[in-house]
Amino acid sequence: MRKHRALATAIALAATLTVSGITATTASATEAGAAVTCSGWSHSVKDGRTGAVRASAAPAAVHTGPYGACTTVGTISDGVPIQYDCYVVNDYGNTWTWVHGFGWVFDDYLVGNGASTHC
Question: What CA–CA distance (Å, rounded) separates 30 from 115?
């Protein structure tokens, strides 16, 4: 089982649109005292399992990169079926799953801790 550490985030929300339990959001944030890379993380369908957001973590933020400081592009509500494509480990040792068609979600928020196959 992969271990996760909590992320420090500060998010400024700009706009929200809700459709079928998935919320599209425009936002920006910075990781406390650290530079993060939010783009250029490769991903592909390697896992393919269907999963969901943990009820206790819903709604889960979807980011442009595998850091809490990366732009939030939306949220996924509990009960919405999602496909886990693959996961990466960021510079803090946290694992994030690429959710097919959406973006990066912190594995602690996903049933089964997200994808089981590395990107």
Answer: 26
